[in-house]
Design a protein that fits this description.
The structure is a homodimer. Chain A is mostly helical. Helices cover 61% and strands 3% of the residues of chain A. In chain A, helix 1 crosses helix 3. The interface between A and B is large, with 58 and 59 residues. Chain A binds a DNA duplex through helix 2.
Chain lengths: 139, 139
DNA sequence: TGTTGACCTTCCCATTGTGGGAAGGTGCAG
DNA sequence: CTGCACCTTCCCACAATGGGAAGGTCAACA
């Protein structure tokens, strides 16, 4: 089948399918005499796997690793579970950072009238933060 | 003062200061006869404002708007509060998406032995998801 | 047969925000 | 005078995706 069909069935855009191939995430697709890429059910299954893991937030690098684990029938399930757990921990970390920011913004918003008046503690804080959230350096 | 000093005092890298200037987030810095950029306390204050708002996760576009609000003494505080609240809502949204993913991954990880055995429900799900989280299309 | 429209191909560009590094000028201290 | 730490601009890279141009292919339809 053509790339358009493979795209429809997998939910991965044709653009991305070509890109994944170009960066080596996917093997080079078979070609028809006219130069068109040719896909079978096997390839579509791989694309769906990629789509699914991308939707779950894994990076292309991680997806690449997961694909390798998937095709290696003998790998211990521990390896897979570890990847999942690392990703969960990563999400937890990011969420906790975002919550800290939310807390700060909520506190600031609470003290701001939010009406016609022009004085605004939010901007005052942005200009000269009292609470030292900002102190955390980038890694 | 030179850009290096301004960088140290504001916590914004020299590289980024130049970049912010180049994209119009900041006005062109004054120049010394030798071509070096010249900064005063005023400019450093602006840089700190940028640093702070960036740390809170505002995009450069939003920072630009916030800078305008900051310098416009007559704007209603409502405008500022609205920006803060929109950002909070955005964070809430992203967090909720991430939590959905976490829930899925936790469920999957729970069913995976995570030992020497090779059978792994996580990969099985990636290949053919039962729970239709993935069904949410991108926007 | 010829045309039209829906495909496909590759190639380049833009995004967002940051860093790395080269090649060259400047300024101060020893 | 030399060396070192600074400054300048310019280009490249990242991650992952989309837009779009220029051109080839194929099937259907008049």
């Amino acid at each position: 089948m053509n790339i358009g069909q493979a795209s429809d069935r997998s939910g991965v855009s044709a653009k991305m399918i070509r890109y994944y191939e170009s960066v080596g995430l996917l093997p080079s697709a078979a070609r028809r005499p006219n130069g068109y890429r040719d896909y079978g059910d096997q390839e579509v299954a791989v694309l769906q796997f990629v789509r699914r893991t991308r939707d779950l937030g894994f990076s292309l690098d991680e997806v690449s690793t997961l694909l390798a684990l998937w095709s290696n029938k003998k790998r211990p399930s521990r390896d897979v579970k570890r990847m999942a757990e690392r990703h969960i921990a990563d999400l937890e970390h990011r969420i906790s950072e975002m919550r800290t920011v939310m807390r700060t913004l909520r506190d600031l918003a609470k003290t701001c009238h939010g009406d016609e008046r022009s004085d605004c503690p939010i901007l005052d804080d942005f200009a000269a933060p009292k609470t030292s959230i900002t102190q955390r350096r980038k890694k």
